[in-house]
Write a structure and sequence with these properties.
The chain is an alpha+beta fold and 376 residues long. Helix content is 24%, strand content 18%. It has helices at 19-25, 77-90, 108-115, 151-160, 194-198, 261-265, 283-288, 318-336, 351-365; strands at residues 2-6, 9-13, 49-52, 59-60, 71-73, 132-133, 139-142, 166-168, 175-177, 204-206, 219-224, 233-239, 242-247, 280-282, 313-315, 343-346, 370-373. The strands form six sheets. A five-stranded mixed β-sheet has the order 2-1-5-3-4, sandwiched between helices. Strand 3 (49-52) and strand 4 form a beta hairpin.
């Protein structure tokens, strides 16, 4: 264990730990914009400057490894003045239209402008990259808000492995871009949206969020993503009971902060008017069971084409549905033997549910005819 002192507080760390991570873990706040605990440090924003005793000048703490006996000051007057200048420079080419910005309330740059009481830049204001891309169904890219922290590039490379975007150009007009600025759909982007999640400003925003409410109006609900058996933690932001967007949470036990495209963007079925919310049985069976007087009407087109005709189904309770299914299943097994039935389960169930299902088929029904749709 390494022992060091940060702002007069003695803290312990492991060899190889970075000073910024150690400070944050110990409740010592060091401003930062380009740092993410799961990404390699890039040192691009310079906000995390600290003064190490004996060092000739301030150094960035996100990429500095701890050394035994280090004495670090994170808030000298000179360092705070440098950080203020850095934020001032950031806002010299970043619109300060926070009142109408969809990132208002969850913007790291806004937080730092507030921290250093910067209402407007003291430099000449000029937008360096006023480019707006609306080229996919999931998120928009509005680069006038980009601060070139590179977190999106790093998450795409280090976590996702897609390498769909990178820095392009030089100097003031450099920008984050796909190769040759092709639309995202023509790039290697897999639309996981992890870049959107860790973008510190409004440069990357989920389309579903735009104009749908302020951050502080939204209720947060955590759950386990239902798309597969991995069990990723997903947090939904809701307004008036409707999902506005989904995101990972930093403490997600399985997935950390990151999600796949399905978990992040594939939730609109939740409020779809086509969603089935109760068990339905076909009218011919309902007629046979005396649950309806209406006769079955043969559909004119295949049920696989277009929307199913719900008029040919009637709703029943879960108890009735389970009862009918069990009776029918038992009838088939009695008449034709257990191998006359097959059980097909879903990748959207948990591992435990799938285990129980195969157990039911093998030990309950008595057949090994059990399979799984592992193609979600
Ligand atoms: Fe260290 Fe950006 S957080 S340089």
């Amino acid at each position: 264990m390494i022992k060091l002192t940060i702002d007069g507080k003695t803290v312990h760390a492991n060899p190889g730990d970075h000073v910024l991570d150690v400070a944050l873990e110990n409740g010592i706040d060091i401003p930062h914009l380009c740092h993410h605990k799961d990404l390699f440090p890039s040192g691009s924003c310079r906000m995390c400057l600290v003064q190490v005793e004996g060092a000739p000048r301030p150094q960035t703490s996100c990429g500095m490894t701890v050394q035994d006996g280090m004495v670090i000051d994170t808030k000298t007057g000179a360092i705070e003045a440098m950080r203020r200048d850095i934020v001032d420079l950031f806002v010299s080419d970043h619109p300060l239209n926070c009142v109408i910005c969809d990132k208002n309330g969850s913007c790291d740059l806004q937080d730092n402008a507030y921290r250093y009481n910067i209402q407007e830049t003291s430099f000449d204001f000029e937008l360096s990259r006023p480019k707006y891309y609306d080229d996919n169904p999931f998120y928009v890219r509005d680069y006038q808000y980009c601060i070139m922290c590179g977190k999106c590039v790093r998450v795409c490379d280090e976590i996702v492995g897609a390498n769909a975007i990178d820095f392009s150009g030089r100097g003031f007009t450099s920008i984050i871009s796909t190769p040759f600025e092709v639309p995202l759909a023509e790039s290697d982007c897999v639309f996981c949206g992890n870049c959107v999640q860790i973008c510190p400003t409004a440069a990357l925003l989920p389309r579903s969020k735009i104009g749908k409410g302020r951050e502080w109006e939204m209720e947060r609900r955590q759950t386990i993503c239902g798309y597969c058996g991995v069990g990723c933690t997903v947090e939904y932001a809701l307004k008036d009971g409707k999902i506005i967007y989904a995101q990972g949470t930093p403490d997600g036990a399985v997935n950390g902060e990151f999600l796949c495209v399905k978990g992040r963007f594939g939730w609109d079925f939740n409020s779809s008017p086509d969603r089935l919310t109760e068990p339905l049985i076909r009218k011919d069976l309902a007629y046979e069971l005396g649950l309806t007087d209406e006769p079955w009407e043969m559909p004119k087109t295949s049920a696989l084409k277009g929307k199913p005709k719900l008029g040919n189904f009637i709703p029943v309770s879960w108890e009735q549905a389970i009862d009918i299914t069990a009776t029918k299943l038992a009838g088939i097994v009695q008449k034709h033997g257990p191998d006359a039935v097959v059980g097909l389960t879903s990748a959207r169930c948990t591992n435990e549910e799938n285990y129980l299902f195969q157990k039911f088929m093998r030990a309950g029904v008595g057949t090994n005819n059990v399979d799984h749709c592992a193609r979600l």
